Amino acid sequence: MIKKHLSGAQKQRHKAEVEEQKAKLHCISSYFINNSIKTASDDTNATSCSSSDDECVIDTSTVAGPAYVEHGSEDQAVSSDEILSSNKEPSDNLLLQNTLVRLPSSDAALWTVDAFTQQYCIDVGLDFCQNRNGKYVMSSRQHKGRTRKLCDTAFNQVSPSGEIIERPWLIYSPSTDCLFCFMCKLFSPNSTSARTKRGFDSWDHIGRLGDHERSTEHRQALTTYTMHLSKTQALEKHTADGNIKERNYWTEVLKRVVATIKFLATQGVALSGNNETFGSLNNGNFLGCLELIAEYDPFLACHINNYGNTGHGTTSHLSSTICEEFIKVMADKVKQVIVDELKLSKYFSFSIDSTLDTSHIDQLTLTVFYVLNNCTPVECFLNFVPVTSHTGLHLFNVINETLNDKLNINLKDCRGQTYNNASNMSDTYSGVQAQVIAVNEKAVYIPCMTHSLNLCSVVAAESCTDAITFFCFVQNLYVFFSGSTYRWGLLRDSLNKETCEASKRELFPKHLSDKRWPVQADALCSLSCNYKSVLQALGVDTLRNGYIRAEANSLAGTMDWLETAFMTTFWSSILTRVNKTSQLLQSETMDLGTAVTLLKSPSELVAAQQNSFEDYHESAMSLLSTASFQLKQQHHPKRMADDSEEPAVMLTGEEFKVKSFYAIMDLLVSHLNRRIHAYSEIHNCYCFLTGDLDSTAVKECLRSLTEFCSGDLNKEIFDEWVQWCSLVKQLASKPLSQALPTPLQMLTIMNMHNL
To answer: How many separate domains does the chain show?
Structure first.
């Protein structure tokens, strides 16, 4: 007999199931905006989430910040931009504006299966809902007096061959502590299977999972899932292919743009012109080079045709803006490489100098010197820094701020500083070198070697009135002839007829320079070789213009003075030797010991020429027929009654010798010796490198160096040096002509043998 009513136990079980289902239902307030929930933006409340709900509703029409979506028991911040752009999140066609979008939970038991849920789960994949943490504490079940629990082995199956195969379709529900089939849950919602409807928790019959996997229902759901997944992947592949194609297109454009900018920047020419119009004659070097390349590059020609003159608002990567951006990027990259190499080398030296640019801004140039790991010395320009003052303190602050603050280079690692010999740089108390030594006493000051000879020449040329007048005359002579093609032609015709045109160009007058004194040497050499020809050109009668004729007569009169001829031969001889020495000092492979020796040679030459006044006088006489120097009247104070009425006359040859020749020679010798002394002091600290000292002198030199560089060298340096001197002679590839190789040769040997 069938019972018409349920038993009391059945009623209680049914009531418990109803209460459990009610507890799982969503509160209706969770589908609307709750102003009490704190959002990521103060002015927008685009998201509403309940602390107890497992799903979140987002109003896509008002989303302006990250939305807090609760999956299971963890709150996850989800940005609306991420939802629309991520390749692992729902497709764009499912997120419609002005609609409420409910994101499915990571718990499969709480899913409401519809088209959106299906597409969302396909897009994000299986990982977000598998919930495999390896613990499954609440999955314990009592069966026939024994406790059964879910473990990770349920997610795998063993093939007949013993191979372990993962079951990716199997997902765990934390709310029901059951297992669900991912495919069947989505695409067979009406199935009566436990793996689809209420979940599987018969841990004592775990083998039934294999039966489900082989069932027709599961295979149909798997087929449906595969078809949906193929459509989504095809769409994503089409979108990805389009993005790759567009990326490759612009990559090819930028390759040509960057190559053009690199070439023009290397040549040091301007990039921009008067306009940015393709086809214009004044569009500048950058666009002009692109037009030239486009004649042989169909790809670039097509790009210019499509994007060349589109104006603002259209991306073309052909404007002056992109040039400036790339130049800045390249400059930053090069600067960073230099800084990285410098930090890897640790120790460095630096040099600064200032120059005025065309915009009348004083720019401080910063150059660093260091040695690479392959033992190659490197000199690199690092930065331009505008300066408003030239005081030693201000320049030091600029150096310290640039190195320490901007480039993160520790000034404590500096071992040398070099500038010109201006007082604001080299002063012992307030100069830049004194400020740097106050911070780092190991930053030895070395006067700039290439500036030394120039500065000595400048000081000597300004030592007396005759020297100043002479250089002004040389400049005026160049201005006179170069100011007219007719006068330049007269000078060319007056040169030796047998001289070829190329040689004549070398003999023409040269323009003087305040900075580059080798130009002075070339100008005086030209004048010395063509003194009579220049004088002849000034005396041509075809110069009929009164002003021009007067200027020519004035220049010719100056050239007729024996003082002018003397100065020409004297300065031509001195500056020629100084120029040759200066060029050798500027060699990239020059070391300090060789430089000191070279610097002594012009000093010894000038000292030897102090008694050569008569030799220069004879050379001047060969240029002119004038037998003596000009007579100059010496002015006296008011005569007394017994004073002679004859004007006092002094032998001007002696006066010129004392006041001009000796004054110039004395200043040259004194300034050269002062600079040689500064370099010699530094060289003496490293004189052991020359190998010309006995063991006692080497030991004393190394002892002094160890005390000075106490944090860099150890006390065993003498024993190491003795061992190295013995080793280096054996490792040298060629027999040595001197006791030891040069310092650069030593570096090369160390690098070759990894010492």
So the answer is: 4
